[in-house]
Description:
Distance between the termini: 58 Å
Number of domains: 2
Structural class: mainly alpha
Number of strands: 0
Order of helices and strands: HHHHHHHHHH
Low-confidence stretches: none
Helix content: over 70%
Largest sheet: none
CATH superfamily of the largest domain: Tetracycline Repressor, domain 2
Shape: elongated
CATH class of the largest domain: Mainly Alpha
Radius of gyration: 20 Å
Amino acid sequence: MGVAERRAREKEELRLEILSAARELFVKEGFANVSMRRIAERIEYSPTTIYLYFQDKAGLLDCIVEERLQELVNQLHELDPGPEDPYESLRIGLRKYVDYWVAHPQDFRVAYMSDLRELDPDRPWRCQILAKELFDRLRESVRRCVDASGKARELELASQSVWASVYGIISLLVMRPSFPWVDQDQLIDSVVNTAVNGLH
């Protein structure tokens, strides 16, 4: 490995270390309570070093959420074209969505437990582009189900209702892991099936 390659690898490793420390602190202490200096102390570097990688604390948060959402988008794209049955296609997509966030609880807390627009309403949050892509995908899947049912439904209401169902189960499993849940797979399937069956 040459000098340039080694330096590039070291830079990427430090970048990932910064993101990991920021993620952990945002979850544990809350975004508002974490400073760039605090993150720097965690990784034993100076704040100046972090500013070489990220413009500010909001940029760090944006990057954390953007990278995780991109990974989820990529995994959902792998499901395409999926089953021809729109209900089964929606069911598979919702299950993938829930499983992904349950497997990444800290990232879910960072991504969805903060109102980014409230944190900085004037910032062009990059991660919001991916969040919109995810919801647009859900809306399109719901539209196909509504069309197949032949029943008159308000698409936005139906889409938000489905999203609220899966968001709810993810939030509960992430925020209340010590609750005596029934078998987790059965519970997730039950919530997803109830949401999808409501579109018939």
